[in-house]
Records
---
Amino acid sequence: MLESIPPLLLQFIMTTAFSFIVGLEFHSYLRINQYQYDFGSTRTFVLVSILGFLLYQLNTEGLFFAIGMGILGAMLGIYYWRRAAKKHFSLLEIILTLLVFLIGPVTIHFPSWFLVLFVVLLVLMLGEKPLIHQFSESLASNEIVTLGKFLILSGVILPLLPDKQLSAELPVTYYKVWLAVLVVSGFSYLSYLAQTYFFKARGLLITGILGGLYSSTATSVVISRRAQHMANERSSVSSALIMATAMMYLRLLVIIFFLNTALGKQLFIPFAIFILLSCLAVMSLLRLNNCIAAKPPADASRHPLELSTAILFALMFVFFAFITQYIISHFGNQGLNFLSIAVGFTDIDPFILSLLSGKFSVPENAIVSAIIIASGSNNLLKAIYAALLSRNRSVMDAVIWLLCLFVFSIFYAFYLV
């Protein structure tokens, strides 16, 4: 049926219909906010969109349309000048009118999905004013600066770096070192934003989930310290610790797939098993003890996009690449396995990313084993932290589970890979 309608008629109907929707939302906006109706409402926007549509059709080169926009802009400028004399300085009506004037050409030249997106965005900008103001008020003053830093790190520095190996002893390139920094920092940044702005009143389990996406080791330390005062909340504490580790595996799996799909496919099964079993363990703990949530730790997460942090991560990345190359060249696969166990007691991200980005003279299954061993060894470290820092039995279930993951990781890496 749509094919039987002339394209010109269909474009005209879409232009008037979408401008009518914007006009209705603007009318509602004025009524809800108790503003004066001195500008116009629904009919004004429909007529403006029809004017833009006809001017563009009369001259497809855009000359008439440009003249019309200039005249409309001058009229709106006079309107704004008269309102400014009455201490009304809002540009919303003017900008919205000019955008509605563009609906006709957008309908003609752009895909339908972009037209719908364009109109929906205009409607949301009008209808979600309280939410936008609330978000603006809650946004920390340094977050925009932080976003600017990330854009510089990703959009300026990364393209300028050559994809050339650092040296013969360091089988990684400048580009891949910085790409690894951006991947880990970006993933941690999303978790930081979720914790800071979307889950402020979070329970302990949510803290474990979001913190695990950020840093499972740091989150385990924070929860274990708080567990000193939560001796009677064994299920809540252990569940949060286990979920932090499960999210570590999820985070690593996403990063590995992003940097090396082939290795990601090999690690999918063991990591998926670890995640699934951890989630089942948490569900069992919560169900057996009828536990819902506990008070979360109050420690704030350190911002993941500090420039000093990024530089330190890059240096650790290069350091682990050098150590890995040295161990492989002198001790082979067995040396890499023992190095992986030792690395688990540090930050495993630089080591794992150096394995993914470097060109080492070992088979893929050796790299898979090293990643599994390092993540398992890190679980042993978290179990030790939990036992030492909590000083009570609230973390006992989590400690047992982390030790089981460590043993299973070693067994899987040495005998099943």
---
Amino acid sequence: MKGMLLAACGLGAALLLAGPLAMAEALAYRLDPVHSRILFRVDHNGFSRAMGTFSRPQGVLFFDTEDWTTARLDVRVDLATLDLGDEGFNARILAPAWLDAGAFPEARFVSERVEPIDENRARVHGTLRLRGVQAPLTLEVRLNRLARTPYNAMRRTAGFSAVATLSRAAFGLRASRRAVGDAVRLEIEVEAIRTRDAQ
């Protein structure tokens, strides 16, 4: 009996000592604006899926590979980085009838809940603020790689791909409804670099 008590005490002490090491922690990563980009596709009169991109997103990710549910994401996109392949058309879409970037110069996505699918995939549920309107958006996310890389001074880098679909009408983008589809597909590529200065 005494031996069993000693063993139990020893096991308890070992668990207490191991606890802080065993508990995983969501580490902070900053988006790498050079290797992160958002592509969107939308139907154009049935002729094509017109494409455009936004570049240089800024944001922070808190991520623990052992527990996706602790992940948090806050990303801002400067709408002026829009590229549709033509400067005049860029200006038209940034105007008040469309994105109204003069009044609302950025879009922002903030996660609220992460739903793990498997060790490399998750659904990230959050809120997108665009054109002064907030609406829910869910990202289907895949972790591509997590490793240290000499390209970033051997700092840990996480690479992700994500897709989502939003309704442009939900954000007040109702111009040219006969010519331009309502469903906008987002395809996102992100690299995020481990940092210690994120808040």
---
Amino acid sequence: MKISQLSLYLYLLIFAACATYQSKVAESRKELKNGQLQEALTHLKPLAETPSDDQLVYLLDYGTALQIAGKFKESNENFAKADKLIELNDYHSVSKIAMATLGSEEMVQYKGESYEKILINVYSALNYLMLNQFDEAMVEVRRVNDKINKIRQEGRKNYELNPFAHYLGGLIYESDGKYDDAYISYSDSYKLDSANPFLPEDLIRSAKKSKRTDDYSSWKNEFPQVTENPDWYDKNKGELVVLIQQGWGPEKHFSPVDQRWPKLYAVPSLTSETKMIISGVGERRSKMVYNVEKVVIKTLDDDVGWMIARKIGATAAKAVAADQIRQKNELAGFLAAIAMRVSDRADLRQWSTLPKDFQIARTWLPAGQYTLTLQGLNGSGFPTPDLLENIKFSVRPGHKTFLSWRSLR
């Protein structure tokens, strides 16, 4: 047996024994859930900074962890690196495709799912909002639109186009007094997902403010249950909008039936909604505006056909490769077949720190200074350990005040 052949077998066998992406980030996720933010950052930082086929997905998880820790500027620096890496890695080298065919999909650069690519800019926009850099946040929203147009041309499904990205754009536009742009963004969000419970009010309000008389009348007829709030048009009032990332998205692991296939497992959460308490004013409950878990699961389900076709081709290629080696050396061919079979496993890479869903709690307030408490609630309405107290914020007339919170339990 030639040394090159032996090296290939040993490489494949060693790879098969290597830790998966999920096992490498499991400790960091656990630390985030326990509030050990610095420890999680310490573990993720070297992985995100080291060039590798997995660097993109490490950057995504590290960027999210930085946002959770309130390091919004550093978070955006990592998301910018991730966005650039997607452009650079929008290809696979011939040699790595060959290795992936004989081994595993994990042997090629991680390119990111369509919904992940869009969420990079959504997260960047959220960071800019927390930094009070609204112009920069709008730049990220425009980049989302560019990506969506590209993904549409690739024939991807509507559920991947992220109605939340459009919705966030509408909120930012409206806060900046660009009511026509806000109306267009709200309308685009509604076309993708009409279930957002805030959209009926947003569409009516933005249509009226943008002087789209016909659209205003049309939405009023479509949503007769909506009563217009005088606060919407009161120039002395502003709106508090709390953007909540709730829980954890599903984790990707090997199927218990066959390790060649991935399976998504829902991550249970103690908290299902958030109660927003404003001192001296009252309270509001959060409502879900984007179900990340549903999108992640649907994406994997829709990719099954492609995965099956690729596995069939890879299996045939492995059989041919092993047979060619066996013709020259019986033992080598036998070992090659075993090595390639053992190394054939599902690619478990994913943006693993995404939330289960995005929720929003909001209310209109007179201009002034306020104190806020956010309390997690379980499915029965009882408090959970998720708690953020005594947050000071101010409301400006005619503007929206944005706050961000991640519920981790």
